[in-house]
Design a protein that fits this description.
Blueprint lengths: L17 H12 L5 H16 L7 E12 L9 E18 L4 E5 L6 E3 L8 H13 L6 E8 L7 H18 L6 H16 L5 H8 L6 E5 L4 E5 L8 E6 L8 H19 L17 H7 L2 H26 L2 H19 L4 H12 L5 E6 L5 E6 L4 H13 L7 E4 L1
Parallel strand pairs: 3-5
Antiparallel strand pairs: 1-2, 2-5, 2-6, 3-4, 6-7, 8-10, 8-11, 9-10
Length: 410
């Protein structure tokens, strides 16, 4: 038996204590590495696979974030609320003398080969090529690259931003470029915009780059300013992630369609009583009902979803300052309902996780919301309620899908 784990076996343990022991065991099992450990593992991964090749690789680390309410800022300049993760990602890199770039991922035995000048590749290879092009230092060089991370890929934009920032910083280190904050931000955002094929919210890049110790970060994507949000009082909630899609692909087609919906909605508003409006950000709350009445059906749901998501970010900040986690969770559930009814980013698994969340409200679970516009949801609840809830969700939802359900404690 592991001496670091607490046992709930035997008749001496009261029944009401067992859930708490189970929660502690899950938390202890969810190992979180320090940044230096991520860096060392990335270097070791490369050396073990390919040898020293004359030099030790350069390595860079980026801490993960979760967009609690941030996906709407892909479509217009608004406010985003990010949650700081304990987990992160590290990229080790060195120039090689080969004809191809070689990529190693921890946990994957095969080595990926690619020409890093070809930006038309899909998935990881395409993103990597866009980052190298954005940094503009390679001059046709090829690289050895190893990646070690603890961020769920299902988080989508948050995962892509962390990987991109770590890679940009590693490239700067390999080429003796001073990694000024604004330069890293701009090059990472440019690469992500080019890879996605349309606007990518800078909130994710800023959230990854900011060195904040508080749990939350409020980002204004118009001014590119950010503000750490402290949690007041002694009550701190627990956070978990439920994930069922794990690839490197952004939702190219779907997100491009939503981008068109947004442009159409703004055009409709300007032609129906709001001629000076340049962004949905500037639509006053008191004018929302008037705007909805004037819009054709095709644009009503778009405006309703995006404007209310942006307004609710400010309400989330108020909930944090009041330590009102039930209100915070209710806002998450309102957002999830809107994503399902008005924004078309959800599927049956989202609905099942939402149902499980509602059923567990009396057991200390406050809310759940999709993060990343893909197969990933973030869950809020009492710290000792989160582990057993994640276990229950994985068991119950797995029977209704061919996708493998994974859960994480944040």
């Amino acid at each position: 038996m592991d001496s670091n784990r607490l046992s709930s076996e035997g008749n001496n343990t009261p029944a009401f204590v067992r859930p708490f022991l189970h929660a502690l065991n899950r938390m202890q099992a969810d190992e979180v590495l320090r940044p230096t450990q991520y860096l060392e593992r990335a270097r070791i991964l490369m050396v073990d696979r390919l040898g020293l090749a004359g030099s030790m690789p350069h390595a860079s680390f980026a801490r993960g974030i979760v967009g609690v309410m941030a996906d709407h800022t892909h479509y217009f300049d608004g406010f985003a609320l990010m949650l700081r993760m304990k987990q992160g990602i590290s990229v080790a890199l060195r120039v090689n003398q080969e004809q191809t770039t070689r990529i190693m991922l921890e946990g994957v035995s095969s080595i990926l080969n690619m020409d890093d000048r070809d930006v038309n590749q899909r998935g990881l290879k395409g993103l990597l090529a866009h980052v190298i092009a954005s940094v503009g230092l390679s001059e046709g060089r090829q690289y050895d690259i190893s990646v070690v991370g603890g961020i769920p890929t299902g988080l989508g934009a948050a995962f892509h931003a962390a990987f991109t920032v770590a890679l940009v910083k590693a490239l700067h280190s390999a080429h003796d470029v001073e990694s000024e904050k604004s330069l890293v931000r701009d090059q990472a955002t440019e690469a992500l915009v080019n890879w996605y094929g349309h606007r990518f919210s800078p909130a994710y890049v800023i959230g990854v780059m900011e060195e904040f110790s508080s749990p939350f970060l409020l980002v204004d994507t118009s001014t590119l300013e950010s503000l750490p949000i402290e949690v007041t009082g002694k009550t701190r909630p627990g956070w978990g992630i439920v994930e069922w899609t794990r690839d490197w692909e952004p939702g190219f087609v779907a997100s491009a369609s939503r981008m068109k919906w947004t442009h159409t909605a703004l055009k409709d508003l300007k032609g129906r009583g709001f001629p000076k409006l340049t962004s949905l950000r500037d639509l006053e709350h008191r004018d929302l009902e008037k705007a909805m009445d004037s819009l054709p059906r095709r644009s009503r749901n778009v405006v309703k979803h995006l404007v209310l998501e942006n307004r609710n970010v400010q309400k989330l900040v108020v909930a944090i300052k009041k330590a009102d986690w039930q209100f915070f969770g209710a806002l998450m559930m309102i957002s999830q309902a809107s994503k399902n009814a008005d924004w078309s980013t959800t599927d049956q698994i989202h609905s099942r996780v939402t149902q499980e969340t509602e059923s567990a409200s009396m057991d200390g679970i406050f809310g759940a919301v999709q993060s990343g516009e893909g197969g990933c949801m973030v869950v809020l609840g009492q710290p000792f309620s989160i582990p057993s809830f994640l276990d229950n969700v994985r068991e119950k939802v797995s029977g209704h899908t061919k996708e493998e359900i994974e859960t994480f404690i944040v």
